[in-house]
Amino acid sequence: MVQFTLPSNSKITEGINHKIKEPNESPRKLVIYRWDPEDDKNPRLDTYEIDQSKCGPMVLDALMKIKNEIDPSLTFRRSCREGVCGSCAMNIDGVNTLACLKSMSDVKKDIRIYPLPHMKVVKDLVPDLSKAYEQLASIKPWLERKNTSNGNANNNGEEKKQSPKDREKLDGKWECVLCFCCTTSCPSYWWNGDEYLGPAVLLQAARWVSDSRDSERKERLKAINDSLKLYRCHSIMNCTRSCPKGLNPAKEIAGLKKAIVTEL
Questions:
Q1: Is residue 7, in this structure, part of any structural domain at all?
Q2: 43 pLDDT band (50/70/90 cuts)?
Q3: What is each CA distance from 162 to 140, 206, 211, in whole angstroms?
Q4: Is the alpha carbon torsion for 39, 91, 108, 101 positive or negative?
Q5: The dihedral of CA 108, 113, 114, 116: what is its sign?
Q6: Are residues 177 and 63 in the same domain?
Q7: pLDDT average, residue stretch 100-129
């Protein structure tokens, strides 16, 4: 069941039905969550009908077609359209994913689109990710080197090189685009989001803990060795199932726990 953070004492109501006015070779309906904080009204579900034969194959293509041709007030985030920026993360057909990577052909019935669950909504399909980015900053997602003249060189000016074998340790971690599909699919984060860092941030923590060029491995492990920051993860595996990049945050979180036990 998908749940969302809504204004108090509110419920989602049926909204406007935007029917296509011209002959339609390949009709497709999209049911989209709408909420504008300036209207002081309950959230609603608007229905849009498009001709899929005159649209690109992805859900993001349909959203852009709706915004450009039917309803310019529809609000959502997007940028690269290639699954690289993570901007267009939303809940489509009950699954958190990237709209630019989700093919409309994968959804057999009407395409139902909501913002990422359990986040405050800024407007329509745009969630407020402020807290998630604060948590990301807390794990220091950058290289740290002691006794160096700059962030990636020794005192004598030599580059801190990394072997191919050490570089391979970052695979499965660096590919994360911080879309927070995994974090917002995690029940532990729904219940403890103020303290638990969540799968996306912990995956980033694992990326920097595993980097051979970083000199603060133990300090990073100590910083997340906390009953709430890390150990609220109960390996429910929603994070792995929902990652649109095919990554495994649950595995990396387990790796962090193992490293803390064996190294601290």
A1: no
A2: very high
A3: 20, 17, 9
A4: positive
A5: positive
A6: no
A7: 96
Strand residues in 150-227 grouped as ranges (E): none
Tokens for 37, please give them.
């904080």
Q: How far apart are CA 259 and CA 64, in angstroms?
A: 45
Residues 6+ apart with CB under 8 A from 45: 12, 13, 14, 15, 31, 32, 33, 34
Pair (18, 141) in one structural domain: no
CB atoms within 10 A of CB 151: 11
Q: Tens digits of per-residue pLDDT, 217-256?
A: 999 999 999 999 999 999 999 999 999 999 999 999 999 9
Q: Residues 238, 183: contact at Cβ < 8 Å?
A: no
> Can you spell out the DSSP letters for 9-31?
T---EEEEEE---S--SSEEEEE
Q: Which residues contact 169 (CB under 8 A, 6 or more apart)?
A: 210, 211, 212
Question: Which of 190, 197, 204, 206 lies closest to 96 in space, CA to CA?
Answer: 190
User: 51 and 138 in one domain?
Assistant: no
Q: What is each CA distance from 251 to 165, 173, 218, 233, 254, in whole angstroms?
A: 20, 10, 20, 11, 5
The total of other beta-carbon atoms located within 10 Å of residue 177's CB is 19
Number of folded domains in the chain?
2
CATH at residue 66: 3.10.20.30
Output the domain CATH number for residue 141. Answer: 1.10.1060.10
Domain limits for position 178: 130-147+160-263
| 100 and 138 assigned to the same domain | no
Q: Are residues 111 and 143 in the same domain?
A: no
